[in-house]
Write a structure and sequence with these properties.
Elements (H helix, E strand, L loop, with lengths): L1 H33 L3 H15 L7 H35 L2 H24 L3 H20 L6
C-alpha cells in the first residue's frame, strides 16, 4: 500500500509539472503576441516603463523595441515551457536520474539568473513571481526525487 501511495504522489506531481509547464507556454504565447494590450499594461508594462523611461512613458521607437523584445521573450518562454512539459510527460516517467537532474538544473538556472537580474534592476514584482513559480515547480520536483535512480 505504501508503494501505491508513492506511485500516486509521483503521478500527481508529474501531472502537476506538465500542467504548469503548459500554462507557462500559454502565458509565453500571450506575452509574445499581446504584450502591449491592457492586461499586460496593468500587469507588467507600467512597472517596466516607470523604471526605464522618463516619466514612465516610452517613445514610439521604445514601444517598437519593447514589442520586439517582449515578443522574443514570450517565444523563448513558450519554447522552454513546451520542452519542460514534454520532459515531465515522457522523461520523468522513465525515472532515469538524469531526467530529474535536467529538469532541476534548468529550473534552477532560470531562477537564479532571472531573479538576480530582476532584483538588480528593481523589478521586485518579477522576483516575487519567480519565487512563487519556483515553489510551484520545486515542491513537486523535490517530492518525487527519490523515485529516480
Amino acid at each position: 500500500m505504501a508503494s501505491m501511495t508513492a506511485q500516486k504522489r509521483f503521478e500527481f506531481c508529474r501531472r502537476w509539472l506538465i500542467a504548469l509547464a503548459w500554462a507557462m507556454a500559454a502565458f509565453g504565447l500571450l506575452f509574445a503576441f499581446f504584450n502591449q494590450t491592457a492586461p499586460f499594461d496593468w500587469l507588467f508594462n507600467h512597472r517596466v516603463n516607470r523604471l526605464f523611461f522618463a516619466e514612465g512613458i516610452p517613445q514610439a521607437d521604445d514601444k517598437a523595441f519593447q514589442r520586439w523584445v517582449y515578443g522574443v521573450l514570450g517565444a523563448v518562454l513558450a519554447g522552454w515551457a513546451v520542452s519542460m512539459a514534454l520532459v515531465a510527460h515522457f522523461g520523468l516517467r522513465s525515472k532515469a536520474r538524469w531526467v530529474w537532474q535536467c529538469y532541476a538544473a534548468g529550473v534552477g538556472l532560470w531562477f537564479v539568473v532571472d531573479t538576480a537580474i530582476s532584483i538588480a534592476f528593481g523589478m521586485w514584482l518579477n522576483a516575487l513571481f519567480n519565487l512563487i513559480l519556483l515553489a510551484l515547480v520545486a515542491v513537486p520536483l523535490w517530492a518525487i526525487r527519490k523515485n529516480f535512480h
